[in-house]
Amino acid sequence: MADEKVKGDPSAPAAEYSVGDFNSTTKLADVQPIDDAEYNPFEQRQTEKPNSTAGSLIHLLKSSLGTGILAMPVAFKNAGLLFGGIGTIVIGLICTHCVHILVKTSHMVCQRTRIPVLGFAETAERVFQYGPPKLRPLAGFSKAFVDYALMATYFSAGCVYIVFIATSFHDVINYTTGNDWNVRIYILLTMLPVLVIGQIRELKYLVPFSALANLFIVVTFGITLYYIFKDPLDFDDKPLFASFGTLPLFFSTVIFAMEGIGVVMPVENSMAKPQHFLGCPGVLNTAMGTVIVLYAVIGFFGYVRFGEASKGSITLNLPLNDDLAIAAQILIALAILFTFGLQFYVPMDILWRKIQHKIPKNRHMISQIALRSGIMILMGGVGLAVPELEPFIGLVGAVFFSSLGLFVPCVVETVFLWPGELGKFRWVLVKNVIFGAFSIFALVAGAYVSIKDIIALYTDDDEHDE
CA 446, 450, 452: angle at the middle one, nearest 5? Predict the structure, then answer.
């Protein structure tokens, strides 16, 4: 992936775009917007080793199928069977639509500005730069907001990864050895391999880890499905609707599970035939349709099997007195550990590009080691502070994924089409206001409930200690 480059349009200064470059820091010409329907940005892209349509589909599926799918049963626990099923489909369609309008807007901006390729942050910047005059001063802020939001999203998801790994090993080792170690001890132990993997700065060196992670995840899914369906399922004691008080956790968990907004533009920008990304069936619709079905099935039947005992990862519900279940927990913990390097690469790549010019070249190596180590230690500290997986996932999904994956695409499309291209009765504006309001609701309500649950956990621990 590291050597997949996209060179700029001959009419623009020479530039390179890397698939690993999740924020796309390509330097662009200060061209004036040109309303030229004849310009086709796809034809101007010169991509070395582009991804095929099938390869792009696999990349997009891989980005959406991670720890989130394992949390779907607990999402259904917070919603109920009927509402959970309908809600998962609706949220999946909203997430798909927001990705669609982001990519479509990026295509239109590329055509209007005669730039062959733009990343997420650059799309937001150019939309404001050539948008309504009063909003043009916000161009730099919009780019910085997306960049820093991407970093915060991936760093916080990395914290979830650390807690997930530690919790899995905590349950297995404590059960098999009879120890009574606190999960925080396992978080500290998890930091040892994390600090090593997090120092890998080349994508090609992460490929073997990703390959093993994919294999382990597939095996774990198979074992999990075996435990879900091996005995008859009892639907009678599962409510169709849980309660209004737990719905924010449902929304934020599903958003956390489904959103892969950070990888969308790199995947699309690296395609040999980017026109196949949107449309019907298209890469996006095929990938997200598959994701929605898988998430709904795992969530629905996982909740039917484990009910109110459903945990932040369905693998944590598997019986520890069975060797197959123990193997599944170990494999998924290793899979997430091996995925951490790629997860950490994304925000570090953005951050390093922003600060490397301020550091002497002869100090780049030691600076990278120190910076990466410091950030990973901070992430471990966050995990130590909030070692409970379920509310942590809800908090990350509410604060970061809802704002970046739902709110920003709606704003970008609205600003680009303002004021004369919003459709009859300005239906695009109405639609984006509704989706934007939903994202704000998911952010505020999800964060409130998650933080409230975290505080309650600490209170219960204090009372228990007393």
Answer: 120
Strands 46-47 and 16-18, how do they pair? unpaired
- How far is Cα 314 from Cα 73, in angstroms, rounded to an integer? 7
At 6, give phi and psi (nearest 5°). Answer: -120, 120
d(CA 349, CA 295): 30
Q: How far apart are CA 162 and CA 156, in angstroms?
A: 10
H or E stretch including 193? helix 183-197
CA 65 to chain centre: 10
- Across-strand partners of 18? 5
**What b/e string do you get for 180-198 counting C-beta neighbours within 10 Å, with b at 16 or more?**
eeebeebbebbbeebeebb
pLDDT computed for residue 360 by the predictor: 87
- Cβ of 202: how many Cβ atoms within 10 Å? 11
pTM comes to 0.77
- Dump pLDDT digits (tens) for 260-306: 666 777 777 777 777 778 877 888 888 888 888 888 999 999 999 98
Q: Which of 35, 184, 195, 212 is nearest to 109 (CA)?
A: 35
CA 72, CA 70: separation in Å to the nearest integer?
A: 6
Residue 103's contacts (CB-CB under 8 Å, 6 or more residues apart) are 264, 265, 268, 277, 278, 284
> For residue 319, is the peptide bond before it cis, meaning its omega torsion is within 30 degrees of 0?
no
Q: H or E segment at 74? A: helix 72-77
What are the structure tokens assigned to 224, written together? Answer: 């999990």
